[in-house]
Amino acid sequence: MTTVYLHVGMPKCASSSLQSFMHKNDELHRSEGLCYPASCRENSGYFSHRPLHKLQPDEVTAAVNLIADEAAEQDCDRILISSEEFMNSLWDKEITGVVIRALNARFGTQNVRIMMLFRNPFPFVESVYAQYLKGGMFRTPDKAFMESDDNGISGFVSNFRQRNGFDFFSYSDFIDRLQSQAPYNPLDLLSIERSDWGGRDIIDVLCERLSVSRGNLAISSNERFSETTLHLLHYSRQKHGFNRTRERRDIVSKLFPAGSRQFSKLIHVHGNLFEQIAKSVDRDRQYFTRKSPEPCNNLFAIPQAYQVQQNQDNELVVPDWYRRLVNRLMEPEVMTQRKAKALQELLESRWADK
Fold first, then answer.
1. Residue 302 lies in a domain
2. pLDDT tens digits for range 41-50
3. Cα gap 132→12, rounded to integer Å
4. CA-based R_g, the chain, Å
């Protein structure tokens, strides 16, 4: 009997690390009975099963059969399918439900386990907004949002709520919406907080659950952008638009590498948003206690650092010449990292003391 683990997210909760790890250890894990299917899997990047989301509903059954046949040929009795797009597309596309129903039909509902990974909601909210500035998130309408008066982190939270009817840091709301598509499938609701697992990384926890070896842990993960870079991407999105900014975000990031954290109300949780998340944390802690036997004390803790920054003043200062530099980086049709560094040195010498 084959068990399918359908990992659906959450986004910004170690999905990229898991997918990279599974890809790099594919051959080893197949020898241990776990198939991370090549069928409907990306052949670059983080090697997720995002291609499933591009299928038409009448193509899904054939895709599931390909995955089942691949696992059978490798003599694997466990299958892991992973893509956070299952969650991202939950409320505006039917593909998540179509895939779950096709898997249930092929393997049996009780053999298709829905896996969700979660991180503490406070850093999660900041990570989601940072990802939006880097390249979009939760299908937020870019032009309208960036032209609004409140387009910082608090406005991003409000925008999501207005469009979808709930807060994206309310994990119970996501689970309820997913269960409407999979009412009888078993759920695995797992914290990625090390302190909930005695200091162990979530990859180690999953290896134990999936009965596979740790193998090669040299995994890829999303790069952290500095607070200065995020501010400049915000400015660029307003002035130069989404496509040009995303195209050159890595150039900006390399000019302003991440260092010690500098608080900014534009990109960090503070004020009323802190209170909103704290109330949601209390509700979700009770929800998880009823729903799952998994440890979640630290998942739903309020970190001391966020209590401190609730009423904190801005620390980050972004000089005006940084914005001048961004304009010089975004305007030409072609820009290289070498030219960008030369421009940075030129403008710094000209404007840094003014």
1. no
2. 999 888 999 9
3. 11
4. 22
